[in-house]
Design goal:
Layout: H1 2-7, H2 43-65, E1 75-76, E2 82-83, E3 87-92, H3 97-108, E4 112-118, H4 121-130, E5 138-142, H5 148-161, E6 167-170, H6 191-213, E7 220-224, H7 248-252, H8 270-296, E8 299-303, H9 319-333, H10 339-351, E9 360-364, E10 370-372, H11 382-395
Parallel strand pairs: 3-4, 3-6, 4-5, 6-7, 7-8, 8-9
Antiparallel strand pairs: 1-2, 9-10
Helix pairs in contact: 3-10, 5-6, 6-8, 8-11
The structure holds 1,2-distearoyl-monogalactosyl-diglyceride (LMG), NADPH dihydro-nicotinamide-adenine-dinucleotide phosphate (NDP) and Protochlorophyllide (PMR).
GO molecular function: protochlorophyllide reductase activity
Catalytic activity: chlorophyllide a + NADP(+) = protochlorophyllide a + NADPH + H(+)
EC number: 1.3.1.33
Amino acid sequence: MALQATALVPATFSVTKEGKSSASFKDSDLFGISLSGHVKANFSSSALRCKREFNQRTGAVRAQTTATATPAIDRPAMDGKKTLRKGSVIITGASSGLGLATAKALAETGKWHVIMACRDFLKAERAAKSAGMSKENYTIMHLDLASLDSVRQFVDSYKRSGRPLDVLVCNAAVYQPTAKEPSFTAEGFELSVGINHLGHFLLSRLLLDDLKQSDYPSKRLIIVGSITGNTNTLAGNVPPKANLGDLRGLTGGLNGLNSSTMIDGGEFDGAKAYKDSKVCNMLTMQEFHRRFHEETGITFASLYPGCIATTGLFREHIPLFRLLFPPFQKYITKGFVSEEEAGKRLAQVVSDPSLMKSGVYWSWNKDSASFENQLSAEASDQEKARKIWELSEKLVGLA
Ligand code: LMG
Ligand code: NDP
Ligand code: PMR
């Protein structure tokens, strides 16, 4: 409970003033805590603060509109000029790696308030501090994607906070390449698909309406994908390969009791479960696009940010792998990107006006220029996307 209450308090409360690679391998082809002191604040003050923050920022932000192409909200100001408000972006798993680097990149612009949706509050707070993020630019909220109750609580808290929602980034993930046995979420789903896909599926479904209601000029839902889920690439052909099969395991609930823990019904394999989960992420983005883009104007997108070989994603891999993987990616595949560079890429998908197209899986070439990439046959299979949507709805209690 204490954590929940604390989690609702924006870090800003402590501020007194309320204030492609074209070399040998191509991505696109086969080679391709100062917490407790501020807990007094409650929901309504949070909403109030939001408004005040908006009012105070108007002047500063107005000055920036002339210099950049960041979407602006046309609101009549006192002097009759157009103004914009800060965008609000939720990033799941912003306590490390890509999520943290993206939070930092967005916070630094001064145009975004980042809601860091994390399972470990203290880790997130330390991470934000050591990244040098200033308190008025972020809020940490508790979210454990391995529990659908936690997802629902997070959504309730967010709605009560009174903040608008302009962009949602589904970034968090786990990867269990060395696990011999499966582990499970609170509801009994195999952990990687449970967190990476099902938790995010419920989260984004429950927050879709908030995105829809946003008056921000460009509202977006971004689900992080990966090259390793795409079997039209070399990286996607390193065994074990992603393959969702006929979805019999997902149909059975991935619980290892009356069904397999793997989507395709096979034997548990942590590396494959991760890659399968990424295929679900990329299919879900496209299904959202087909169902809701026209009606809501929301941009749905996915991306492969590059191989960020130094992140916590590989924490469960053997030490030798963690030692050799970065130089392998840097010097042999040349697919390596730093966390900082990858953060800038995802930040572009969040806010760059040139990346507004919906239904796209973005990648970057060796000059770090973005391009619309091709997904594998399975990761663009419309019929599978529809089935996964419907099965996932049942599993998370939406149908
Ligand atoms: C599975 O293995 C694991 O079983 C599973 O747990 C999970 O981790 C999963 O996808 C993740 O991978 C699959 C993989 C194991 O199997 C294969 O890829 C089959 C082919 C492997 C044959 C290796 C030759 C590859 C030839 C391709 C040419 C490219 C050059 C590659 C150079 C590296 C060769 C070792 O694959 C492996 O175990 C490969 C080893 C892990 C790769 C990452 C680290 C390699 C680093 C090597 C060079 C680093 C640079 C410094 C130079 C050091 C010199 C010693
Ligand atoms: P990290 O491990 O550094 O980051 C993953 C984040 O997810 C962490 O903040 C972690 O929290 C969080 N997380 C894990 N489980 C949960 C949970 N149950 N509830 C809430 N948050 C959770 O890895 P990356 O930054 O590399 O990964 C980020 C995204 O990028 C993933 O979607 C991954 O698939 C994708 N990606 C990564 C690539 C790479 O090369 N690294 C390449 C392509 C895509 P905590 O800090 O508490 O552990
Ligand atoms: Mg892979 C262009 C070549 C390329 C790229 C971009 C990646 C990205 N990898 C490439 C090639 C190879 N990898 C080759 C030739 C091999 C065999 C030696 C290889 C192996 C390998 C392993 C064992 N690669 C891996 C692993 C992992 O455990 C990582 C993984 O699959 O996690 C699911 C991984 C990755 N390679 C990548 C990327 C981005 C990953 C991290 C996976 C992800 O985040 O989706």
